[in-house]
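hey team, just a heads up i'm posting the complex here instead of the shared drive bc the drive is being weird again. everything in one block, sequence lines first with there labels, then the predicted structure for the whole assembly after. its two chains so it's a bit long, scroll down
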Amino acid sequence: MGRKLLLDKAHVENIRQYDVYRQNGGYRSVEKALKSMSPDAVTEEVKKSGLRGRGGAGFPTGMKWSFLAKPEGVPRYLVVNADESEPGTFKDRYLMEFIPHLLIEGMIVASFALGSTRSYIYIRGEYAWIVGILEQAIAEARQNGWLGKNILGSGFDCDIYVQRGAGAYICGEETALLESLEGKRGNPRIKPPFPAVKGLWDCPTVVNNVETISAVVPIINEGGDEYAKIGVGRSTGTKLISACGNIKKPGVYEIDMTISVEEFIYSDEYCGGIANGKRLKACIPGGSSVPILPANLLLKTAKGEKRIMNYESLSDGGFATGSMMGSGGFIVLDEDQCVVRHTYTLARFYRHESCGQCSPCREGTGWMEKILWNLESGKGKSSDIDLLWDIQRKIEGNTICPLGDAAAWPVAAAIRHFRDEFEWHVTNAAESQTRNFGLAHYANELPVAPASV
Amino acid sequence: MSEPSKLFKVTIDNITVEVEPGTTILMAARKIGGDVAPPTMCFYSKLKGSGGKCRTCLVEVSAGSTADPRPMPKLVASCRTNVMDGMIVKNITSERVLDARAGVVEFLLLNHPLDCPICDQAGECHLQDLGYEHGKAGTRYEFKRRTFEKEDIGPYIQLHMTRCILCYRCTYVADQLTNNRVHGVLERGDHAEISTYISKSIDSEFSGNMIDVCPVGALTDKTFRFKNRVWFTKPVDAHRDCPTCCGKVTLWQRGDDVLRVTARKDEWGEVQSYDGKPGWICNTCRFDKKHTADWVIEGPTKIDRHSVISQGHYVGLQQPKETVQAVMGGRAPKLLMDIHSVSDVNSVDISALPGPATSKTFDKKNQ
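-- predicted structure starts here --
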């Protein structure tokens, strides 16, 4: 049983309410930080904890905070990215919906560390009902003196505002989020300048994920060093994984990044195995944008080692044989799923969500979708597979924001690992309309190359 | 001892140039000029904030600076990346760049209608030039292209959204030259379109400059539509004393008729600057002053020798040697029909005609 830091109180009845949250040890970290620590000491503690951004990129949070420019007389902002739109990812929703005060508490501490007197939560438009929950929590916190002027007599003022997005995936990209927050069209900005220098209203800004900010609470409560002891290597602390797909128990799980992927999928404590007695075919371990892996590469790395649920192990082997931790959206596909259809669905999503600002993403995503539809509906040619590969290669890395990469990677990985399934769709066009390719050899043990000396 | 140099040294395609700090890679490359300058579709040096969108100007930075000589992992948009001292940039010397650029050209042309034969921009279209210089011969796109309805935006400008490459230049013109922007980008992704706010018309006094900045034929001058091909018209520099703008223009003439008035363009296809200020022109000069009497003629406009617009302006050019026979070992090619026996198509100087050329112009029997 792994340790829970974020969700340990999630099942206490009425934890959503301030009184219950407070009785269960809530807002201790604010007391500790504001009364006994300097802002720099809080940042230092977060640095020590080794906390990495939970939104997908995994950038060290303490380092991000220390990059924040601090010119005199210019306000600084903390913006919490609650625009959780990645298909397969729903961990932030769980946090905000059930323990909203944890996020508010983390935000107060983070705002104190960063010197942000106005902090924002940018929440995706589809989470309409959560806005009320957060507003309620903010109002309760304000009533009890955790927000407003001169919090706890420390001289620190802070207010938190919730802003709803309008349902665009692209607004989860931090600069598009800032544009949208400013009331403009949510187009990603061209970087540099980075938000740490010129962010919201041209002021230095830190944009952090909901889970990242929530993790600040246990870090301050227990100390960065204690937090860093959980987990392994550079993957410290706990991570929320939102598991979905063909598993027995989909849901949000908190893991301490030392368990293996196999244990996560098959143990009763977590996903409980593949549903309906089927076999595992493939999995996207970190939200729809990260590369898909076939069962054999998912459970073991190319070196033959057990794959562990953490940043390093999931990305072991690079994109050739590995994937990414991403945002923790764990999508499991069983033997009945068609990878071509699945890839088409993702391509359709990215075509729909491309902002249209830069040409490779605007035109390329639509092109990939159309080719994939042809392949899926039995009208594909074998040259289409190479064409897809070339298109994704020309999108990846050549766009303004990471959406281009996010659109290219799933296609690239699907072709890399499931090329024979694509080819089968071309050569057996009629048959592909009536049945799926099935598990094939995707769960077979892979030969392990002897370690080069 | 001399003062320590404050200029940054940057090497682009093995040519070193010294530029002021804060210069972008693109502007440094333009200082070198020629093929070293990356093509631009969305960047416009006179419009603040433009650039970064089309991705045609991607370059490889193989050394970030003297202080930090690590290469940049991704290709960068040269129009929005500032130079550092000791930076080494690869443009046309990098396979990666050429490959990515060919990809971008293919993407830009993917949904473009390629209706050049009926497009007023043909001959001065940046997308045509880009396609010829950096693109591939064919397309691999086999699907229906996206189309839009033509739209009249204001009394002078027509919008062909189908041709648009979403460079956003026209929105910057509206933001920076006019008091009130009433058009912008609606929708997103591949169905994003430029449009006005609930079919409002654009009637600002400087709106005509959108036509000049449009790199393709998406925004066309309604007073010039289908009047003539640009390469049949003769560009002449002229000026007038205009109370609202600089009054320095190029007249596009056919005989004595002024068919079109535009701002003067520099070698990068951008509006020329005078004393550091861009020479935008007002709608009165552009649309209403269409007589030579309105203008003081300065002389012929210098047009790049490689442009099709200069076609027909060089009199007495040496004919290239006929080599077909030599190649075929003395045999003459078998012609289905010798067009020269029925038509004067190659010997008529079209730009010397007073009006548009018709089939009669080329018919030998009628002369």
